[in-house]
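user: can you give me the structure for this one chain? tokens are fine.
assistant: on it. calling the predictor now.
[tool input]
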Amino acid sequence: MNASSVVHFIGVGAMGGPMAQRLLEGGHTVRVFDANVQRIEAFSTQNGKQTALTSDQLGVGADYVVMILPNSIVVEEVLFGKNGLASRLKKNAMIIDMTSGQPEMTLSMGERLAALDILFIDAPVSGAVPRAQNGTLTIMSGGEAAVIGQAEPLLSLMGTVTRTGALGSGHAMKALNNLVSCAGYLIGIEALIIGSKFGLDPVVMVDVLNSSTGMNNSTQKKFKQYVLSRKFDSGFPLHMMVKDIAIAMGLARNLGVPAPFGHLCLDLWSGAKGVLGPNVDHTAVAHLSEQLAGWQIPESES
């Protein structure tokens, strides 16, 4: 791959927009599409009208198609539905699916694309919007080693690539990562509720957790920033997190793994979505724990 590669980027929302920007700044010819026309207009206003794509142009002349979409059902529709782009791709073009997708569907789509001589890898990401902006995302990539190797110069503009194994393994790893993250968040919130009701300062609690064995991503990057501040504005919606936990639990079910703690985690996060609404920030799940306890974690500006 070289700097003259033509990349069609589908999905330029809060994460996809800055990711596409990184590729453009890296010297690639980037053209974007999104179901939300305003997102296309925002990107093309900043980078030139030539960066905008229509649905009929998707895939035509592209060396790479990068997708970061709501779920695998949408990915399948974009590829194989009415006016699907798979039929317009040239042979040996590559599709990079950065959606938080379902591994089983990824494998099925991979078989269909291979029959068309189209390369395919899954490469979901972990990291919030600031990491998308500065190109430091964690990218979990599954697929044939040679194909991932071909894509790595492109992917490395957006973050650090970890090869997870065969096709679909990146999507599996992303879901399992978010399962662990969600479990750590919930238990940490419960600890803050218990401790603050006892009389502990929650700021001190977070400081102690971060210098002790209770440290995790939530204690480091979420509790002071979004919970103690009462801002709840990390930029990642609750329904997306619930989707990822459900994918992880689907894997467990298909593999015959009981995973009782994982299922409890899914039940609690799903319950929060029902009570709080699907589009609230995922950090607002703390409200459900507070409602159950009848206690609100005190606000702090620290």
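assistant: here you go. The chain has a mean pLDDT of 96. The beta strands are 6-10, 29-33, 64-67, 94-97, 119-122, 125-126, 137-142, 159-165.
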